C-alpha cells in the first residue's frame, strides 16, 4: 500500500513594508524633485556649459554651431595674465566687502530705529523700502546724476555748505569712483538688510531686555549681550545673500561708470560682460566667469564655515 502525502502549499512572502521614517524621506524626496530638476536645468547645466566654453577659443557667432576646436587653457592664461586682472580683483573686493558691510551697518541702524516704534514709523518704513522698489539700472542713473561733478546735487550741497572749494569728481576720478559706486550700490541694497534685521529684532523675546534692565545693564550692554546674539542667525543668512548679490552685480558699474575711469571700477563681473559682448570673445569671458564663480563660492563658503558654530537658526 502506497501512502501519498500532499506537500503544504507555499506561503507567499509578504513584501517588506517601508518604515515610517523611510516613507517620510521618500515623500520629501518626491516633493523636492521638481525643485531639484529646476536647479539642474537652470543652474547646473548653464554652469557646465560655461566651464565647457571656457576651454575653447571661440567667437560669439560660433556659439550657435557645434564646437569642433581642440580645448585649450589659453583663455585662462589670457585672463589671469592680463594687466587689468589684479586691479579687477581689488575693485571686486572693495565693491563686494565694503558694499555689503556698509549696507549691513545702515540696515541694522535703520532696523533698530524702526524697532523703537516711534511716531511716524510707518512713514519711515515706506521711505526705507522705496530704494528696493527702484530698478537697479534706474537707481544707478539717479546716483549718476546726483554725483555728477558739473550739475549734481551732491556737489551743489557740498559747495553751498563750504565743505569743499571745488566740485568733487566722484565718477571721473580713479581714486574716488569705486567708492562712489560702492556707496550707491549699498544704498540700493540696504532695505533688504533692514527688513531682515527688523525680523530678527522682533523675534527676540522682550522679557530678556526686561531682565537685563532689572540687573542694571545699559543700552550698550543689552545690545552686545542680547541683541547681537539674537541676530546671529539672521546676520549669517543676510550677509551670505548680500555677498552673492554683490558678486553678480554688473548693472550698477556699467550704468554709472562703464568700468572707468582707467578701469578703476572694472570688477570681475564687468570684465566678463566686456570680454563677451564688447570684444566678442565668449571663451575668454567664460574663463573670467569661471574664475569669478570660484572666488564667489570660496568667499561665501569661507564665511559660512567661519560662522557655522555661532548660528542659531
Automatic annotation (TrEMBL):
Belongs to the binding-protein-dependent transport system permease family. Keywords: Cell membrane, Membrane, Transmembrane, Transmembrane helix, Transport. InterPro entries: ABC_transporter_permease, MetI-like, MetI-like_sf. It comes from the Bacteria. It is found in: Cell membrane. Pfam families: BPD_transp_1. The chain crosses the membrane at residues 26-47, 89-114, 126-146, 176-201, 222-247, 286-306. CDD domains: TM_PBP2. It comes from Stella humosa. This is Carbohydrate ABC transporter membrane protein 1 (CUT1 family). It is a multi-pass membrane protein. Residues 89-303 form the ABC transmembrane type-1 domain. One of its GO terms (biological process) is transmembrane transport. SUPFAM superfamilies: MetI-like. Its main location: membrane. The keyword Transmembrane helix applies. The keyword DNA-binding does not apply. One of its GO terms (cellular component) is plasma membrane.
Amino acid at each position: 500500500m502506497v501512502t501519498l502525502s500532499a506537500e503544504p502549499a507555499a506561503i507567499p512572502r509578504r513584501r517588506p513594508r517601508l518604515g515610517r521614517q523611510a516613507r517620510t524621506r521618500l515623500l520629501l524626496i518626491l516633493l523636492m524633485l521638481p525643485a531639484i530638476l529646476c536647479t539642474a536645468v537652470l543652474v547646473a547645466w548653464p554652469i557646465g556649459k560655461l566651464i565647457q566654453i571656457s576651454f575653447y577659443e571661440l567667437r560669439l557667432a560660433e556659439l550657435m554651431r557645434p564646437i569642433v576646436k581642440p580645448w585649450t587653457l589659453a583663455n585662462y592664461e589670457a585672463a589671469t595674465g592680463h594687466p587689468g586682472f589684479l586691479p579687477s580683483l581689488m575693485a571686486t573686493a572693495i565693491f563686494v566687502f565694503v558694499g555689503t558691510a556698509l549696507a549691513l551697518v545702515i540696515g541694522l541702524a535703520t532696523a533698530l530705529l524702526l524697532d523703537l516704534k516711534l511716531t511716524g514709523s510707518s512713514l519711515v518704513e515706506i521711505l526705507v523700502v522705496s530704494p528696493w522698489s527702484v530698478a537697479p539700472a534706474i537707481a544707478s542713473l539717479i546716483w549718476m546724476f546726483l554725483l555728477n561733478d558739473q550739475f549734481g546735487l551732491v556737489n551743489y550741497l557740498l559747495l553751498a555748505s563750504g565743505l569743499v572749494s571745488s566740485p568733487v569728481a566722484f565718477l571721473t576720478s580713479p581714486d574716488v569712483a569705486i567708492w562712489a559706486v560702492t556707496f550707491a550700490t549699498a544704498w540700493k541694497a540696504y532695505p533688504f538688510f533692514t527688513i531682515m534685521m527688523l525680523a530678527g529684532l522682533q523675534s527676540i523675546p522682550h522679557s530678556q531686555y526686561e531682565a537685563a534692565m532689572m540687573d542694571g545693564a545699559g543700552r550698550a550692554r543689552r545690545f552686545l549681550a542680547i541683541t547681537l546674539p539674537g541676530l546671529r542667525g539672521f546676520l549669517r543668512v543676510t550677509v551670505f545673500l548680500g555677498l552673492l548679490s554683490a558678486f553678480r552685480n554688473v548693472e550698477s558699474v556699467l550704468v554709472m561708470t562703464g568700468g572707468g575711469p582707467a578701469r578703476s571700477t572694472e570688477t570681475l563681473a564687468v570684465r566678463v560682460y566686456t570680454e563677451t559682448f564688447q570684444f566678442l570673445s565668449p571663451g575668454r569671458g567664460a574663463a573670467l566667469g569661471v574664475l569669478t564663480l570660484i572666488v564667489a563660492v570660496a568667499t561665501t563658503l569661507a564665511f559660512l564655515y567661519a560662522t557655522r558654530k555661532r548660528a542659531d537658526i
